[in-house]
Fold:
Amino acid sequence: MKKDRYNTMPRQWNHRGAFSMIEVIMVMTLMGILAAMVIPRMGRDYAQEAADSILSDIRYTQHLALTDYRHSSNPKWQRSFWRIGFRNCANSPSSYNGLFLLVGSDRDYGGDIGAAEAAIDPNNGKSMYWNSSDECRNGGDESTSERIFLSEKYHVASVATSGSCSNAQYIGFDHLGRPHQGYAASNSPNYSSYLSTPCIFKFTMEQGKREFNITILPETGHAFISGQLDS
Structure:
């Protein structure tokens, strides 16, 4: 009898039993360990959120300057450059010293930004202003954009400056988007406030856990998160 040439190999049956209880427990244990390692890293990255938000606000300030030509016949007109500044809240309690930012234009040339001179947050239509003599612990009021409260929203503890804006509390932009500092008391348009070197804002998170820098280049006013070329 002729053998079927297609059936020359013996059949092999693959019998696979169910998982044993020990195997199930081992798998569940490993999954628990991996979850414990991964979940903390999936929490909010407040430093990155803060950096992105502040960078966005700096660019928004520059945008306002580009679209709102502030030159006038008043010799103090440079004071009205659109600016972004960083300030501390009132201490209450004394151990707390929150940080907030404000964006505005000194339209009355008084040297500082008032509530009526503040920018409006395009995301929610609220004011980007707060008075440093008031508490920030509750995140302001219903008329103020919560994004300006850097300590309350993002846990930013402090800010320091270096480069050509060393010791500056604010930075402004002219109608060409060029960055300036130290012009709040200008009595004549001498343009001595131009940045000559990069301006660096160094932000430190609460308890000193992390830091991040935002750099603003002279002439162009290009701003970016240091170390993040795609920011």
